Amino acid sequence: MKLLLLLAALAMPLIALLSEQGQFGPDAGVLSARYPTLLLAAGYAFAIWSLIFALDLAFAVWQALRRGPLAPALRRARPLALAGFVLTTAWMLVFSQRLFWLALLIIWSALACLLGAAQLMARMTDPNGELWLGLLPLGLHAGWLSLAAILNTAQVVVAYQLLPTGDMLPWSLMLWAIAALLLLGANARLQGHPAYAFAVLWGLVGVVIEQSGSSLPGARTSAGVALSLAALLLGQTLYLQWRAHQREGGTAGAL
Fold it and tell me: Could you list the residue ranges that cross the membrane (predicted)?
């Protein structure tokens, strides 16, 4: 399992590089521009993948070499992380082939796996102060996928014209409502971990920038919703961090 996780972490940036070179078909940027939505983020926002892949690889190396008290707990998170990495790689291949329904199923499955792995890491005891080496990459990856899954859903709607594409605001607002439930709920389950919150905020700011300059009807409203959600998530994260600090202070005082 250790080696498989390491190989999966290596496969993600390799396939991403080949995908950007058009080896499997149009890359994600080209296809996203072909199917514009009111939830699309600015192109620069997708640069976060480089950081995600680098940290995932660091995590894979760490877990492969790690010995000691954390090993049993890590064994519980490894299968979910492995599945999340493999599914992330599969999504890049499938999306380039314009198999959008399959890509949508894959990205939501990848999100479920990585959220599960991150949640397991968040609940582990950390006697040696090492858990950040796992929770940082998994939280960041899960955070970006949390928003990317919603954006991918909107693209599928547009690609197959499942709902009106001339006036996308009504159904886009419904997707924003789903996004709010997902993002705030996951953030709470991860106890407001900064890595998860950062990835989501990064993406939401990207949406604000993209939609503020878009000519699509309803784009400014969508930008406002994204900005409001970002403010809400930031406030929730600060509150959760403060509450965790208070609990730790109370525990220390009791001792």
Answer: 38-65, 77-94, 100-120, 132-162, 168-186, 193-209, 221-240
